[in-house]
Amino acid sequence: MRERVAITGIGVVSPIGIGRAEYTDGLRAGRSGTAHITAFDCDGFDTRIAAEVDDRRFDAGAWVEPRKMVKHMSRSAAFAVAAAAMARRDAGLGSEDVDPYRIAVSLGAGGMGPVDLDLLSGQATAAIRSARGQASDELDVPAFAREFRARTNPISMLRGLPNLAAAHLAIQQGARGPNNTITTACSAGTQAIGEGMRAIQRGDADVVFAGGTDAMINPVGVLGFSMLGTLSRRNDDPARASRPFDCDRDGFVIGEGAAVVVLERESVAAARGARVLAELAGYGCTCDAWRITDERPDAEAAVHAMRRCLDDAGASTSDVDYINAHGTGTRMNDLTESRAVHALFGPGSAVPPMSSTKSMIGHLLAAAGAAEAAATVFAMDAGFLPPTINVDSPDPECDIDCVPNVARVARVDAALSNSFGFGGQNACLLIRRW
Amino acid sequence: MSPDPQVVASELLDPVRGIISEVLLVPRDMVSAESSLMDELGAESIDFLDMIFRIEDIVGRRIPVSRWYEFVEERLHGANLAQAITTAVMVEFAERERALASR
């Protein structure tokens, strides 16, 4: 019989709170993390709102030893390192408790290339200066290279590689076991946690720092998603823009941050007397193999992922008390996702309450699945269902109980946490009371 | 080892100390001419890339990092580099590059 996988600690850096206590309070209070973008001048942008981490309250250097390594970290790497440190502290995991080669890292990450604003500015300025006086639109590459070389610090190029967030995490935590970065965007965080569980089940690790991180609130990130037509344009009322399952939803709000959970083999957790938050009981993953952004209308692959997850946990739909939705707030996702859960539970079976954390924290992209799994665990532990906020009129086509606006006191013994990403990746976790 | 009088007199000593202090995030008064950058001040290889980039500004010339490695090999051949690469060595390199730039 397979040993259980325990969740023994969680760390979060989010737009509604840093650390477990603040984040849980924020979820319970239905706090919105969305506001007008402060990270850069977004004048003229169609979308001028986002869910930012409060830089006045987040100091990357406080989590890094030696402090100078912060210079080599992208914003998302810094988030991940902080979340992992908080998770370890939450787990009470000491340095002698586990062989370092048995501590693995499985992290969802994104942001390929230099996306942090200062790196982007260097590239853009180089391009502009080299283009001055050019008659055509063609890039004068040698001139661009001279300008770029003159103004770009070589070490800044290290910040752009997505695998380095997990590398920094491993350095800070002394984790010498398998180290993997998962780049499936919106479902990366969920998949990273699922794959972390598999590493323990395979016998490759006893402890895994698993989660996700992302920081795409920069001109390229906001423009990119905006041009794809996926972002809310409720610029006049930012706090109320993210409204999954609502009739007037108009897209998602980009968020940023990181969440890391400590997964631990049952026997190792027991040996050190660890306090267990919950069991990570099941994981299912499929791909729509359909279109590059549109979901399968029948949501068949999403249903399959959830079913696989339940089977993996030895559970059935009747065991599920709550679903943490992908719930981006786009017109298509929320409808398709609702169809999927109705198909999973079958006609005549009531779908349990299903709410979207993205209504509060925004879409954390590669960190979303991890931040939402964290929300699910915290809520289970604290005895409430996180709400979907900004629901003025629930969309009847979705036909679900989205826990509108106000957190609800409830005992949850088992919950599904879903992520359905761009590219059709569907990932699902089952979190169960220990 | 007493500091090389040429280095102590060099007007580049202070700017180079400033660069080392910024790159390694150590207080400026911890950076003396004899401080070993790796052993004492914690530099790793990418920190040298950062330092050379900043030295380019004071020298007024692009410095391919290979020139630094060649200089170290020539000047400190056989030495324990973790100890031997000091602020003074960096100053000497900067002086040499500046002389080349003004030709």
What would your notes on this structure say?
The complex is a heterodimer of chains A (434) and B (103). Chain A has 434 residues and is of the alpha/beta class. Chain A is 32% helix and 19% strand. Chain A contains twelve helices and 15 strands. Chain B is mainly α and 103 residues long. Helix content of chain B is 60%, strand content 0%. At the A-B interface, loops of A face helix 3 of B.
**What is the SS-derived class of chain A?**
alpha/beta
The secondary-structure class of chain B comes to: mainly alpha
How much β-strand is present in the residues of chain A? 15-25%
- Helix share bin of chain B: 55-70%
Outline the fold blueprint:
The complex is a heterodimer of chains A (434) and B (103).
Chain A lengths: L4 E10 L2 E2 L1 H10 L4 E3 L12 E3 L23 H17 L11 E6 L8 H15 L9 H11 L12 H10 L5 E4 L5 H15 L4 E9 L3 H9 L28 E10 H6 L6 E10 L12 H14 L8 E3 L6 H15 L8 E2 L2 H4 L6 H15 L1 E2 L22 E2 L4 E7 L4 E8 L2
Chain B lengths: L4 H5 L3 H12 L20 H15 L5 H11 L5 H4 L2 H15 L2
